[in-house]
Design brief:
Layout: E1 2-7, E2 10-13, E3 18-26, E4 33-39, E5 46-51, E6 58-60, E7 68-73, E8 78-83, E9 92-99, E10 113-114, E11 118-123
Parallel strand pairs: 2-11
Antiparallel strand pairs: 1-3, 3-8, 4-5, 4-9, 5-6, 7-8, 9-10, 9-11
Length: 124
């Protein structure tokens, strides 16, 4: 089992920045691909970003490419999501997820473990 706990959410004005963190505990963190997803009210949970276990490969949804950066620190069992130039449409609950290595990181069902989520609200 892997336990995931997100933090860093909050209220920010449009154009601002936030950094989300996801701390993992339990089984070894390193072999897992780590992903961030988000879910806005009334919408499906959608892929935001993912990073390979080595950190050498990162993947982004088109809607966040160029604004968000995913990174990981395996020694600290932590993955990060740096979010810049935030827009009101980025408002959602953000979830961290862990799954086996994959070349299709946007597939929600691929991930085995999920955190409880952290709320991000971007005001206009």
């Amino acid at each position: 089992q892997v336990q995931l706990v997100e933090s860093g959410g909050g209220l920010v004005q449009a154009g601002g920045s936030l950094t989300l963190s996801c701390a993992a505990s339990g089984r070894t963190f390193s072999p897992y691909m780590m992903g961030w997803f988000r879910q806005a009210p009334g919408k499906e949970r959608e892929f935001v970003a993912a990073i390979s276990w080595s950190g050498n490969s990162a993947y982004y949804a088109d809607s966040v490419k160029g604004r968000f950066t995913i990174s990981r620190a395996n020694a600290a069992n932590t993955v990060y999501l740096q979010m810049n130039s935030l827009k009101p449409e980025d408002t959602a609950v953000y979830y961290c997820a862990a799954g086996p290595p994959s070349n299709r990181p946007a597939l929600r069902n691929w991930y085995d473990y999920w955190g409880q989520g952290t709320q991000v609200t971007v005001s206009s």
